[in-house]
């Protein structure tokens, strides 16, 4: 099912690329959904996930089944349908479906993604060797950061499963790619979940919330050539900019007391003004030292994650954490997998935070 107006998405993309000059990555940008939109971006993301120099994402996929088995004990004896918000490569959905499918032959699987290419690829891997009838799989192409789309998705799910319980998931640290992550989580928790439903959230975590941790977080992403290809794939696909990887900058700061915020930008280092052609055939000026923000992501501290969950009206049901091997003296990073249920509505304006320091300022 297609829930997005493609022409409207192109209009949004070109509007973001028309933003004013900024040396700090706060003007022109590729927002989260567009980072994965298109064949080139999908293929580049799959390659990045298997890159030996990008171990956090690779290890998060390899360790997911073990972590899911631990947290899934809280669901024993219940029969849930599954809605995956952001399918990714599909490996994690496969692990979830393999367990939920046992004793539940009527299970419905509803993968959701703004990118039709990512949706097709993820669905294929998720269903590999699983005996799930085609009629029980309803892929939905839409942007789940839109309040109107979320309401439409809930109505669709209720028509498909009635009052039967549902597990929603947002995996792979996808939440951290959105500017107002707390507001998005509050939207999903408040508009999707009924009392019988559960929400599975996976985020990157850090035990060290200081400048050394920020430098290590930026270094982690900078070290992967495949990740660099991924973050530049959208701007290469939707403009005629000739990519110079030396113009890609990775910076990170401590975001208040909640996370390490990583920002990836592309900077015009040519010494002169460029002119870029956009998808609607119009063109924009790209002056010397101007930037295009390619991606933001975060690693959350334990206290930062707790506060975000509380501000979003989420109640924890279970949690597991997997740490990744780090050299002596290096910060300890990991992935937290949290099972949630809807709690009391968050306090008004609970998700609003002052802007984070800029790593390129």
Describe the protein in words:
By secondary structure, this protein is of the alpha/beta class. It is built from 10 helices and 13 strands. The chain has helices at residues 6-17, 39-49, 55-71, 91-100, 116-126, 147-161, 181-192, 211-222, 225-238, 302-311; strands at 28-29, 81-85, 109-113, 140-141, 166-170, 198-206, 248-255, 259-267, 274-277, 283-286, 291-300, 314-323, 333-342. A 7-stranded mixed sheet has the order 4-3-2-5-6-13-12, with helices on both faces. Strand 2, helix 4 (91-100) and strand 3 form a beta-alpha-beta unit. Helix 6 (147-161) runs parallel beside helix 7. The termini are far apart. The model has no long low-confidence stretch (mean pLDDT 89).
Keywords:
361 residues; alpha/beta; 4-stranded mixed sheet; 13 strands; globular
């Amino acid at each position: 099912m297609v829930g997005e107006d493609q022409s409207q998405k192109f209009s949004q993309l070109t509007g973001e690329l028309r933003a004013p000059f900024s040396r700090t990555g706060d003007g022109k940008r590729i927002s989260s959904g567009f980072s994965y939109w298109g064949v080139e971006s999908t293929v580049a993301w799959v390659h990045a996930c298997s890159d030996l120099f990008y171990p956090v994402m690779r290890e998060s996929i390899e360790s997911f089944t073990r972590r899911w088995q631990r947290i899934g004990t809280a669901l024993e004896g219940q029969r849930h349908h599954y809605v995956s918000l952001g399918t990714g490569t599909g490996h994690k959905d496969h692990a979830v479906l393999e367990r939920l499918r046992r004793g539940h032959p009527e299970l419905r699987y509803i993968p959701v993604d703004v990118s039709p290419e990512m949706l097709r690829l993820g669905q294929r891997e998720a269903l590999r060797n699983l005996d799930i009838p085609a009629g029980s799989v309803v892929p939905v192409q839409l942007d789940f950061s839109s309040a109107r789309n979320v309401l439409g998705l809930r109505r669709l799910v209720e028509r498909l499963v009635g009052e039967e319980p549902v597990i929603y998931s947002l995996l792979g640290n996808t939440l951290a790619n959105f500017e107002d992550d707390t507001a998005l989580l509050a939207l999903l928790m408040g508009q999707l979940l009924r009392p019988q439903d559960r929400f599975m959230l996976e985020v990157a975590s850090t035990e060290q919330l200081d400048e050394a941790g920020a430098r290590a977080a930026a270094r982690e992403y900078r070290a992967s050539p495949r990740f660099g290809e991924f973050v530049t794939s959208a701007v290469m696909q939707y403009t005629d900019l000739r990519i110079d990887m030396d113009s890609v900058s990775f910076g990170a700061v401590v975001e208040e007391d909640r996370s390490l915020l990583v920002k990836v930008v592309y900077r015009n280092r040519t010494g002169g003004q460029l002119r870029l052609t956009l998808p609607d055939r119009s063109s924009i000026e790209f002056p010397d030292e101007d930037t295009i923000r390619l991606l933001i992501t975060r690693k959350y501290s334990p206290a930062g994650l707790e506060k975000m969950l509380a501000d979003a009206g989420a109640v924890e049901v279970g949690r597991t954490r997997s740490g990744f091997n780090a050299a002596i003296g290096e910060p300890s990073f990991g992935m937290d997998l949290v099972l949630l249920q809807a709690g009391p509505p968050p306090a008004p304006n609970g998700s609003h935070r002052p802007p984070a320091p800029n790593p390129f300022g």
